[in-house]
From TrEMBL:
Zn(2+) 1 binds at residues 78, 89, 186. This is Allantoate amidohydrolase. Binds 2 Zn(2+) ions per subunit. Residues 283-310 form a coiled coil. Keywords: Coiled coil, Hydrolase, Metal-binding, Zinc. It comes from Heyndrickxia shackletonii. Zn(2+) 2 binds at residues 89, 124, 377. GO terms for molecular function: hydrolase activity, acting on carbon-nitrogen (but not peptide) bonds, in linear amidines; metal ion binding.
């Protein structure tokens, strides 16, 4: 089985890189902090006896060779974070994959297939507002246009890559071929497993995230001198749209819609706002429902701004179709959980993951590990050492079974 003490120690060590004052973690893509974290993970991969390299965009890859004539099994997750996030999101998947391969080698258990552990670049999208850069590249779908997205300081993905020694003209070299499957372990980031009192679960599919940016323009005027019936206040219009978005999402069983950013100008206490920008993150496991909810939000927003004389533009920042996990991989995970004598729970993922990028390339599967109180993207994010161990042992058994099939 796995060395749970070693895995737990690595989780704690990695969390110190980018640690915030309240024990959260902030690690953004193409920063010195992230580079330090990658070098730490690189060291862990080398300790595990893996052949380690960075690809053309900065994904960190550790390889355990197998038979040359067999396709590669891909394991992994990410080590970047949201602002002041937790220590388990993403990192647990990378470190568990490393631990599984190290434990197998220490027990002289040979796998037939080559296996690669990959720490994907910028899954969260926290810096540039555009996520899954690394997995997009591995799928062969990262385009030059994607590299023009900019952070809050006006630095583009392109320029950040160049600064850290990567060539934006070689992004297609990161594409991987001859992959048998992709398997990822991740914290649940929800309360289903905790409610069912089980440590691990089988992911049935991943809800598709749709990110929209709304820009509303009205007229900035004096707050005291402008009568209420003569105002073109984009913030009031935005508040109506935001409120209705919540109501619309609640109509559907698994749909969620979240306003995550909101800004207004000029921002004076005695000035009616002239412009407002906000984002809406819409998700559902069913693509038809996702599309229907988007239409309803757009239709309502159009009605509001027309009634109030507000100019509106909507930009689609990102749209990824929902993805179903491979039935074969699901069944194999179920067998592994049953072998460890735990109840088998299957559930969808409301959060997006790198595996979504591979839906047209090769089969994917995911293992969820219980999250305390369902908290994630927060310094309070926590998964117990015992649950981490059970998750790792589930992954080891699953990998071993998939290697034989």
């Amino acid at each position: 089985m796995v060395n749970s003490d070693r895995l737990w120690t690595r989780i704690q060590e990695l969390s110190l890189i980018g640690q915030t004052s309240d024990n959260g973690v902030t690690r953004f893509a193409y920063t010195d902090i992230e580079k330090e974290a990658y070098e730490k993970v690189k060291h862990y991969m080398q300790e595990a006896g893996l052949q380690v390299t960075y690809d053309s965009i900065g994904n960190l890859i550790g390889t355990l060779p197998g038979a040359d004539n067999l396709p590669t099994i891909l394991l992994g997750s990410h080590i970047d974070t949201v602002p002041n996030g937790g220590k388990f999101d993403g990192s647990l998947g990378v470190l568990t994959a490393i631990e599984v391969l190290q434990s197998l080698q220490e027990q002289n258990i040979k796998l037939n297939h080559p296996v690669k552990v990959i720490a994907f670049k910028d899954e969260e999208g926290s810096r540039f507002g555009f996520g899954m850069i690394g997995s997009l590249a591995v799928a062969g779908n990262l385009k030059a246009d994607h590299l023009q997205w900019k952070d809050a300081n006006g630095i583009s993905v392109h320029d950040a890559m160049v600064k850290h020694g990567y060539d934006p003209n070689k992004i297609q070299e990161a594409k991987m071929d001859n992959i048998k499957l992709y398997l990822e372990l991740h914290i649940e980031q929800g309360k289903v497993l905790e409610k069912e009192n089980v440590p691990v679960g089988v992911v049935t599919g991943i809800a598709g995230p749709l990110w929209l940016k709304f820009s509303l323009k009205g007229e900035a005027e004096h707050a005291g001198a402008t009568p209420m019936n003569q105002r073109k206040d984009p913030l009031v219009a935005a508040s109506l749209i935001i409120s209705e978005t919540e109501k619309l999402a609640k109509k559907y069983e698994h749909a969620v819609a979240t306003v995550g950013t909101l800004s207004l100008t000029p921002g004076g206490v005695n000035v009616i706002p002239g412009s407002v920008e906000f984002t809406i993150d819409i998700r559902d496991i069913n693509e038809e429902i996702l599309d229907q909810l988007e239409k309803e939000i757009r239709d309502y927003a159009s009605k509001v701004v027309e009634e109030r004389g507000i100019h509106m533009s909507i930009v689609e920042l990102q749209k990824i179709a929902p993805v179903l996990c491979s039935s074969t991989i699901q069944e194999t995970i179920q067998e592994s959980i049953a072998e460890l004598r735990f109840p088998v729970i299957s559930l969808p993922s409301g959060a997006g993951h790198d595996g979504m990028q591979f839906k047209d390339s090769f089969p994917i599967g995911m293992i969820f590990v219980r999250s305390q109180d369902g908290i994630s993207h927060n310094p309070k994010e926590f998964t117990s050492k015992e649950d981490v161990k059970i998750g790792a042992e589930t992954m080891l058994l699953t990998l071993s079974k998939l290697d034989q099939r």
